[in-house]
Amino acid sequence: xxxxxxxxxxxxxxQLVKEKYDYDFSNYAISxxxxxxxxxxxxxxxxxxxxxxxxxxxxxxxxxxxxxxxTVNVTEMFRDPSMxxxxxxxxxxxxxxxxxxxxxxxxxxxxGEEVYSMAIMLKENGWLDKAKIFATDIDHTILxxxxxxxxxxxxxxxxxxxxxxxxxGKTQLSDYYKVEGQHILMDKKLVSNITYMEHNLASGxxxxxxxxxxxxxxxxxxxxxLQNDVFKLIHQSLFNYGYLIVGSKETLVWCDIASKFxxxxxxxxxxxxxxx
Length: 276
Prior knowledge:
By secondary structure, the protein is α/β, with parallel strands linked by helices. It has nine helices and ten strands. The protein has helices at residues 7-21, 30-43, 49-58, 60-71, 81-98, 113-124, 140-148, 153-167, 224-237, and strands at residues 102-107, 131-137, 150-152, 177-180, 183-186, 194-198, 210-215, 238-246, 261-265, 270-273. The strands form two sheets. A seven-stranded mixed beta sheet has the order 6-2-1-7-8-10-9. The protein has a three-stranded antiparallel beta sheet with strand order 3-5-4. α1 runs parallel beside α3 (49-58) and α3 packs across α4 (60-71). It is globular.
């Protein structure tokens, strides 16, 4: 069993992936990158790092599996319920009061639980038909899962139902899905106005101007240089007086564009763009 990965091996891997598949992992945080690579080595029972490199180089199908393991984010519905209450009670009323239609971007949407949380909240407050939602992720496989809206029953009962209750939903979470065996299927009507797209935050390319961006628990996997670049992209993608929400362990107060935002709620990590 491989217990550690040499820096030179990381360089070889990032160079190979960049040259063959045009994905750039060079600015990922080394500690979390190493942890995920060690997990892959264990899952696929590679006894040398070279065997992983060879498989990535020769098998594009395996690379898709590799990408899913590297970029996977553990998520849940209505994660951090107090943030969702603040979003419902303080942020969205301001946006819908001044806009006929509100554009929302879930950046790094993973398997889609956050997107469904947003859609449920919008529906319960009469805003769903007035919103246009973009859900993006680097990983095609995880995006397909998000579109499908199929999740384990146990996760709904043990975690998501409790989060929804703490958020203060107007009904029961079970009203929005049906149970099929060991899985549930979310109501597709919730996501009829949602556009799912592959998008790499590390590319620095903006694809739309929006009023609200949720980029939660994604930046912690990037080093400081890449975080700074992503914040510039986010700033570019927001209309003036649009809002940004990041994860509970993330902040933009140190970055180059920090002066172009004000802090709306530091505890819930909600920021507002005030200048280009």
